[in-house]
Amino acid sequence: QSVDPGDKMVTQLVALKHTSPEEIKRILTPLVAQSSVIIAHNPSGMLIISETLSNIQKLLSIIETLDVSSR
Protein backbone atom coordinates (compact mmCIF):
# COMPACT_ATOMS: atom_id res chain seq x y z
CA GLN A 1 0.00 0.00 0.00
CA SER A 2 1.64 3.25 -1.11
CA VAL A 3 1.43 6.34 1.03
CA ASP A 4 0.86 9.79 -0.43
CA PRO A 5 3.86 11.93 0.62
CA GLY A 6 1.43 14.71 1.56
CA ASP A 7 -0.60 12.38 3.80
CA LYS A 8 0.72 13.17 7.27
CA MET A 9 0.66 10.98 10.35
CA VAL A 10 -1.90 12.07 12.93
CA THR A 11 -3.07 10.84 16.32
CA GLN A 12 -6.79 10.60 16.96
CA LEU A 13 -8.60 9.94 20.24
CA VAL A 14 -11.88 8.09 19.73
CA ALA A 15 -14.48 7.84 22.49
CA LEU A 16 -16.53 4.67 22.15
CA LYS A 17 -20.12 4.61 23.40
CA HIS A 18 -21.18 0.98 23.10
CA THR A 19 -18.26 -1.27 22.14
CA SER A 20 -15.15 -2.10 24.16
CA PRO A 21 -11.91 -0.51 22.94
CA GLU A 22 -10.25 -3.95 22.95
CA GLU A 23 -12.90 -5.35 20.57
CA ILE A 24 -12.59 -2.44 18.11
CA LYS A 25 -8.78 -2.67 18.27
CA ARG A 26 -8.97 -6.38 17.39
CA ILE A 27 -11.10 -5.57 14.35
CA LEU A 28 -9.03 -2.59 13.15
CA THR A 29 -5.50 -3.93 13.67
CA PRO A 30 -5.39 -5.94 10.40
CA LEU A 31 -6.55 -2.83 8.50
CA VAL A 32 -3.68 -0.51 9.47
CA ALA A 33 -0.05 -0.32 8.36
CA GLN A 34 2.64 -1.91 10.54
CA SER A 35 3.97 1.57 11.30
CA SER A 36 0.58 2.60 12.72
CA VAL A 37 -0.48 2.27 16.35
CA ILE A 38 -3.84 1.45 17.93
CA ILE A 39 -4.07 1.57 21.71
CA ALA A 40 -7.18 0.41 23.55
CA HIS A 41 -7.64 2.32 26.82
CA ASN A 42 -10.38 0.34 28.54
CA PRO A 43 -10.79 2.47 31.72
CA SER A 44 -11.83 5.50 29.64
CA GLY A 45 -13.53 3.62 26.79
CA MET A 46 -11.15 5.30 24.34
CA LEU A 47 -9.07 4.27 21.37
CA ILE A 48 -5.86 6.11 20.55
CA ILE A 49 -4.95 5.73 16.89
CA SER A 50 -1.79 6.99 15.15
CA GLU A 51 -2.16 6.58 11.40
CA THR A 52 -2.14 8.59 8.18
CA LEU A 53 -4.89 11.19 7.92
CA SER A 54 -6.58 9.45 4.99
CA ASN A 55 -6.64 6.11 6.83
CA ILE A 56 -7.86 7.72 10.07
CA GLN A 57 -10.88 8.99 8.15
CA LYS A 58 -11.61 5.46 6.86
CA LEU A 59 -11.13 3.96 10.32
CA LEU A 60 -13.48 6.52 11.89
CA SER A 61 -16.15 5.52 9.40
CA ILE A 62 -15.71 1.85 10.32
CA ILE A 63 -15.79 2.66 14.05
CA GLU A 64 -18.99 4.67 13.63
CA THR A 65 -20.61 1.69 11.90
CA LEU A 66 -19.50 -0.81 14.56
CA ASP A 67 -19.95 1.23 17.74
CA VAL A 68 -23.69 0.74 18.11
CA SER A 69 -25.75 -0.65 20.96
CA SER A 70 -26.46 -4.36 20.83
CA ARG A 71 -30.05 -5.39 20.47
Structural description of this entry:
The protein has 2 helices and 3 strands. A hairpin with a 4-residue loop joins strand 2 and strand 3. The mean pLDDT is 91. The chain has 71 residues and is an alpha+beta fold. The chain is 31% helix and 27% strand. A 3-stranded antiparallel beta sheet has the order 1-3-2.
Write the layout of secondary structure elements.
Blueprint: E1 9-15, H1 21-28, E2 37-41, E3 46-52, H2 53-66
Antiparallel strand pairs: 1-3, 2-3
Beta fraction: 25-35%
- Based on the structure, what is the oligomeric state of the protein chains? single chain
Radius of gyration: 12 Å
Task: Profile the largest sheet.
Answer: 3 strands, antiparallel
In short:
The protein is an alpha+beta fold and 71 residues long. The protein contains 2 helices and 3 strands.
Comma- or semicolon-separated keywords:
27% strand
